[in-house]
Amino acid sequence: MLLDPKAGVLVQGITGREASRMVEDSLAYGSNIVAGVTPGKGGQAVHGVSVYDTVAAAVEKHRPTISIISVPPPAVLDAALESLSAGMQLCLIMTERVPQLDTSKLLIAARRAGCTVIGPNSLGLIRPGITKLGTIGGRVDNVHRSFMPGRVAVLSRSGGMTSEIASYLTSRGIGQSIAIGVGGDAIVGSNFTDLIERLESDPATDAVVIYGEPGGAAEEQLAARMKQKPSRLRIVAFLSGSFVDDLEGVRFGHAGVIVERGRGSVRGKVKTLRDAGIFVAETFEDILHGLEPDA
Amino acid sequence: MRLLEHQSKTLLAGFGLIFTESIPVSSPDDVNSTVSHVGLPAVLKAQTPFGGRGNAGAVKFAESMDQAVIAAETLFGMDLRGTTVEVISVEPKLNYEREFYVGITWDTVAKLPVALLSLAGGVDVESAQSDQVARQSFDPWTGLAPYEAREMAAEVGLTGKTLMGVGEVLTKLSGAFLACDAITMEINPLIVTKDETLIGLDARVEIEDEAVYRQRKRLDPLGELTMTAAGRPPTPLELEAQRIDAIDHRGVAGRVVEFDGDLALLIGGGGASLTVFDAIKAHGGSPANYCEVGGNPTEEKVAAITALLLSKPGVKGMAVIMNVVNNTRADVIARGVLMGVEAAGRKPAEAISLFRVPGNWEAEAREIMEAAGVEVYGREVSLDAAARLAVERNRAHAA
Q1: By three-state DSSP, how is residue B212 classified?
Q2: Which CATH superfamily is domain A123-295 in?
Q3: What pLDDT was estimated at residue B4?
Q4: ipTM
């Protein structure tokens, strides 16, 4: 399974305002955060977690295998490379506004190192009742209200919608095996297709709800994969932002058109997913119908 | 950030790529001297950050000085998607045998940059059959190798000097793409003259907004740059919203797109905003704006944006609908909204059609809003249901 609750977690950029609050909330939920790194601030502590100057020093002492990166955008690539060189197996990048070039570079390095990357621009992931990584769910009381254990996975391109969908499912008595904010950027470490391939071998998951948005080709890529090789998982998709299809002038030059070949619009994505046999919810509430056994 | 044609050419010339000399002209008085300098026949083009110039009649050819002056008169002040043409370019019209398309962009599925080469240049490139287009994704650490570029040229059937030359253009362009943090770079058409020289007639460059901070040295000498990637220039309301968002760096409250409707929306975060906007329209409502709020903005920012959106003429009321908030504090939003309502000279109970911000600090938010007489809903009311209620309330308001 993607997130082992016993694995030690390292937080890069732990002394930042957001990271520090995330550590407090995560410890309260039971996350196994063992160390933090902020270059130049070694020797300090954040909510009882020791801070080191380098990842190497933190690893030597605490042996984490998961890293959460919450450093400013210009520092993300270097932080990720530092993490990879120290042998991390899972890396969650929470930072927003990371230049695409840096993301692409770090993903190449991660592939070579055999490390799974979630994000950038991800709020994190949670296995309800077990553990969580990142700010997903917010304060611990809110996490308990939004998420409950169960057998439906939630994968979302929007951090907020991850909690919103889970919260709606929870309110209707449907629990979640895992919920992942895959990240809002055009290029992310693990997209729908990458993650569904892993969830297929997870005996705790029966169904997946995906939340998609305009732009990119993640939904089309998933549809193509399902056409080629159907999944044992019931997949329900909900997409928003169809009004964006009608806004003019988003295109510039021809390169995007040649590469995307008509992909990217919400209406196009909905059609492609349906053609591949995937249930696409008409409205937010319609997600529930898709999860019913005879849908 | 999109560069204008002459800016794109200047930037790419710095990487050893060759273009027609394209001289920007910003006053009709300078047309005559510029055309004399460039020589006839000449091409006059509107400088606009949007595509489709040729089809919009914004590219003119002139055989004589009279024709050039008339063309310039037509171009200056021309309205292209709501933008008035203020700068045109003048360049010599060249004769050529063949034209190509070369471009670099991101392939988000492969998660790599990709180089493209097509024998169909000009506007035909999008309809070119896939076997006429060579594409090669490349490692951003090392760039497109010269041999990969030559393979692309060979794949579309080029030989001899042209194969070598096109390969070199692709290598240089991909190097520029990486060095400049571009998301699109293209030369279209790239022409071959009689003496086998490769010259770019037009260029398009878009730099990733997220990376502009480290491209200042390259971009600043190019002159004024267009920040917007939207299809039209920002409206005064959108500009004011951007100003409010820039008050401080904490959180987002000001990514506004203006529409014609009567229901103002303060919505968040990113995904829920899209969902709510779709749902408002699906339930027959008419949004006055799209506005994303998230990342825990300050009360002051929320107040300023609320007052701005409520003061738009024709707006009856405002709905505040967000997803279950993880990071943003619902009570901060509540206090900010009430401050904004007051600043707009309205009463909370009539101005705010409903408030639905569950999550962090929701109990405190509920107390604040209910004390002001505003209808408050929690997570038990879905985004869709909240949108429907907002539309019904706003309609009742009209009656």
Answers
A1: helix
A2: Succinyl-CoA synthetase domains (3.40.50.261)
A3: 87
A4: 0.93
